[in-house]
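Recall the central idea of this unit: under ordinary conditions, the amino acid sequence of a chain determines the structure it adopts. In this exercise we apply that idea directly, starting from the sequence alone.
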Amino acid sequence: MSNQNSSEENRGQWGSKLGFIMAAAGSAVGLGNIWRFPYMTGENGGAAFVVVYLACVVFIGLPLLYVELALGRASGRNPVGAFRETGGGMPFIFTGVLCLSACFFVLTYYGVIAGWTISYAISQISQTTLVFEEYTADPVYVLPVFALFIALTVIIVRAGVEKGIEKWSKILMPLLFVLMLVIIIRGVTLPGAGAGLTYYLKPDFSKIDGTVVLKALGQAFFSLSVGWGLMITYGSYMSKKQNIVSNGLWVAFADTSVALLAGLMIFPAVFAMGHDPSSGSGLAFTTLPAVFAAMPAGWIVGTIFFLLLTVAAVTSSISMLEVPVSYFVDEKKARRSTCAVIIGVVAFLVGIPSALSNGGNEWLSNIEMFGQTGFFSILDQVFGTLALIIISLMLSIYVGWVWKPKRAIEEIEQGCPWFTKPLVVGITPAAVWAFFIRFVCPVVILLVLLNTLGVKIPGLS
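Accordingly, the structure predicted from this sequence is:
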């Protein structure tokens, strides 16, 4: 344990506005954008889903992003400390605990998927074929790359906020965009790519129904990293001089841009090679390797693609590890470097059942709970879906009705004076934001929660 001053040093602060934007955007940008968004788009009608998703980001995701950033900077603490410091009672402090739990447990299986991306990158370089079902069922291949990915995450987080997370985010985020542009240029120049562009960019609004809207909402939550407590933690490292509104807009813009670019990267190539765009979660690991194999010099594109997935996974995993690390630094005055190593090791050990639940162990692969089959899928349903929706609901209720919008607005106004200035017919941006947080977000999130729990909603289910 260290003294208070040492703890504040361990805690750290962003060195620049760009550093925060890159790190926060990196936190939001992950496999959810590059792996999940394209297959969700493919399963739900293409361009029409994209339009609904963009609306959900603007009207639900962005207001919630401001909630987390304001709460984090006002308290200067991790999710648990943020609720306690701002006067939240036990239900809300438990919400902070749920944030820590979600980040930790998602990291335990997210690292498994990230390990797959490393193996697939190696397979593209060596020009060997991995059969997805056989590969994921073999612990000899899966566990070492899982351990490697967790170790990489630990190395970055233990170096600190400015020298670790911020420094590497400034490197990894531009690299991610460059890699994506390389693949997009190759994909759109393939014969037959035009059909993919039409599917992705020309909406057929007749395909929009209640189910598509709810799935687009869910994707907006996952994509922007709201509901994890990640942005509470990252907001707590932000100086009072920084502009929460513009910073949040840049984060949302970067995150959404990556998701949209992912579609441009994948659909033209998939259509050009005659594959099914609605092949679900296997799109990245089953369909795309076949697409790359059919391309001239496709192994180069394939290598870049899976390196891209790895980079995106790292930028997200460092924020998942940072949330529990920040808790122990804040609350227990522990050393950052020690916490990062210990939590990383525990995350690897807890993640072993997830790594073995894709055919590596019969019981772990077939266990059924919460409507899911397999340990991996159960964890994802509980912590990667339900927990995030519940946290988002509690956050909107807390800031909208308990902590009160006025206090959050005062925090946002620091660094953004125009937030409380009348713009149109005397209405301020702050008033619009408060309306969404108090009334729109709780209702919409509750509908998503009920749908996730299997409750039939007339007109939506």
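Residues 142 and 315 are 21 Å apart (CA to CA).
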